[in-house]
Amino acid sequence: MVKRNWFDGFFSNSPQTTAADIRQQTLNGNIHRGRIFARAVIAFEAILIILNGLGYLLRLSDQFNHLSYLLMYGLMLAVNLLFLYLTRHNPQEGQMSDDALRRSENALTAYIAFSLVWGSLVSLLDQKLYGQLMVFQINLIANALIFTVDRRRMRLPMILATAVLAVGLPFVQKSVNILIGHYVNLLIFVIIVWLISQVNYQVNSRNLVYNQELERTNRLLANQISENQQINDRLKQANFQLRELSLVDELTGIANRRGLRNFISQVFEQKEQPVSGLGVIMADIDRFKQYNDQYGHIAGDQILAKIAGVLAQAAGPELEIAARWGGEEFIFLSFNIQEVRLLEKAEQIRSSVESLRQIPNEDPGEPEVTISVGTSLKSVTVASDVAAVIDLADKAMYKAKQGGRNQVFSLIPDIRMVAVTTPEQAGQTAGLARRIWMEHYRPIIGEEQVEYMLNRFQTPEQIWQDIAEKGYQYDLIESGGVVAGYLAARPDSAKQECFLSKLYIVKDFRRQGLSRILLQHLIERCRRCRCRRIWLTVNKNNRGSIAAYEKLGFKRIESVVTDIGGGFVMDDDVMELVWD
Q: Distance between CA 104 and CA 302 in Å, rounded?
């Protein structure tokens, strides 16, 4: 049966790394450490030879066998000089053959065996003077720590050296008590050093395996980075070709419709980055005709170019493009984008256009330039699917204009609002309220106040009373088949207004921008009900919600301090959104 190292099986399915590679790396490490060890031994033996000579000349001890020790020191010095000579070439310069590797491993095993047996012989000489096993023990522990050798190759040197010492001790040590102590200590020490050597070998071998795998992974990663760079280079070349083929709008410097169609075709033709989804941002300049009539077509053309620059700057190097759709309309396509990132880009574009009037050297009296933005996101598999996504974004853009302009409106088809019409649903809403209020309001107003408010305002009985007696409309919000939150509103047809009492979203869905989308849906619902105003109250400490409402056009009109009982006071801002 052929014996195998533990790491042979580990690499049975890995063509990049083999057990032979690990064996050679282990051998290289042993030789490197062994050469350091050999230099130290040579220096130490040279000192001992000098001290031995001085002792002989000065006649310091008649019992010290100077000749025997001189021979042992000289032998050790000579063998280590030979070791340095034989290992003078760098073993890492090339891949060793299997025969050469085996010969080198056998030579190293012989060197270890010599070192250990030498320590046994010197310890036997020491019995007449010191009665110690110190040289054997030092050699044994040094070889176990310096050389990482498997148990098969470590077993022979240790057995040989231990046998030499064990057999020779009765001939040189006459004290039975000392002899027994030596054997007991020798047994314990050899077992411990054996375990140390094997643990050292296992740890070193595993580290080599993991390093090999890490290097292989790094190579794969480097190749992937190189491939991605090639993709980037090809996309840059494609963008250059767009200009060369007159696919760019002359006025704005971004792609025209023909350039957009060409880009879409290229995206679906390339295979490096499979397409799974498409996000579309459609933007239209608000009241552009009035701007043109007042400031002239040259100023209008300058605004078109500036807004095109904003969209072009938002486009990344891969799978994104900004184009002029026609007139004062622009379009932005992003393949494989996530919903949250799409909404962030849309808001970034809207706010950047809004701030164009702040550019230096512009007429201070120039009116505010804004855009209405619609977004859509949908799975696409072929180029013909793109038209449906663009159509959704176009509809969303007109919703943004109807909602008051200068805003982002998103059409998300998987959002469903389920009206709360039974006491059982009221109980479900109360349970959802507890979860959301604890995760959202506890850091703002404290757990004690949250508990008080839940028990007073958000019990199943209270919610059902609001619906049955006070005219509130509660809706559970579902996204992707999961209950994501709830809202409560009280429309007043006589006053043509709607009071938004509650809009709470589970944390994970808040991160996806669901609150903003739902507010847009609610505004649209109120408009259909002929309401002209939505108002609500927000805790002053809830700065995130205040900022979100302000982005949708809500304005703070007053502050209200309310004593809700239980020793708690609510300090709120009243905000409203009014449209014609």
A: 78
pTM, full prediction: 0.41
The single-letter DSSP state of residue 191 is H
Distance, in Å, from the CA atom of 554 to the CA atom of 575, rounded to the nearest integer, reads 6
- Per-residue pLDDT for the chain (580 aa), expressed as one digit of tens each? 444 444 444 334 444 446 777 788 888 888 888 888 889 989 988 998 888 888 778 777 666 777 888 898 889 899 999 999 988 876 555 567 788 888 888 888 899 889 999 988 988 888 887 778 888 889 888 888 888 888 888 888 988 988 998 898 898 888 888 888 888 888 898 889 888 888 888 888 788 778 778 888 888 888 888 888 888 888 877 777 656 667 888 889 899 998 899 899 989 888 778 888 899 999 999 989 888 888 888 888 999 999 999 999 998 877 899 999 988 999 999 998 887 788 888 988 998 998 886 444 455 555 578 999 999 888 888 888 999 999 999 998 998 888 778 888 887 555 677 888 898 988 888 888 888 888 877 887 788 888 888 888 888 998 888 888 888 888 888 775 678 788 888 888 888 888 888 887 776 666 555 666 677 667 767 766 678 888 888 888 878 778 878 877 788 989 888 877 777 777 888 999 887 6
Query: Can you tell me whether residue 568 is helix, strand or coil?
Result: strand
Type of residue found at 477: I
| Sheet with strand 568-578: strands edge to edge | 415-419, 473-479, 482-492, 497-505, 533-539, 568-578, 555-565
Neighbours of 571 (CB within 10 A): 12
- Euclidean distance between CA atoms 463 and 435, whole angstroms: 16
Query: In sequence order, what are the beta bridge partners of 491?
Result: 498
In which residue are the tokens 């020191």 written?
A: 73
Q: What is the CB-side half-sphere exposure of residue 178 using CA atoms within 13 A?
A: 13
Q: 10 Å Cβ neighbour count for 219?
A: 11
543/528 Cα distance (integer angstroms):
30
Rounded to whole angstroms, the Cα distance separating 428 from 388 reads: 37
Q: Please say whether the beta carbons of 389 and 376 come within 8 A.
A: yes
**291-320 core/surface letters (b: 16 or more CB in 10 A; e: else):** bbeeeeeeebeebbeebbbbbbebbeebbb
Choose among 227, 302, 213, 206: nearest CA to 271: 227
Quick one: three-class SS letters along 282-339?
EEEECCHHHHHHHHHHHHHHHHHHHHHHHHHHHCCCCCEEEEEEECCEEEEEEECCCH
The continuous run of DSSP H or E covering 119 comes out as helix 98-126
CB 497 within 8 A of CB 535: yes
Give the distance between the most distant pair of CA atoms in the chain: 124
Residue 200 CB burial class (10 angstroms; 0-12, 13-18, ≥19): middle
DSSP class per residue in 348-381:
HHHHHHHGGGGSTTS-TTPPPP-EEEEEEEEE-S
Which long-range contacts does 481-484 make (Cβ < 8 Å, 24+ apart)? 483/428, 483/432, 484/509, 484/514
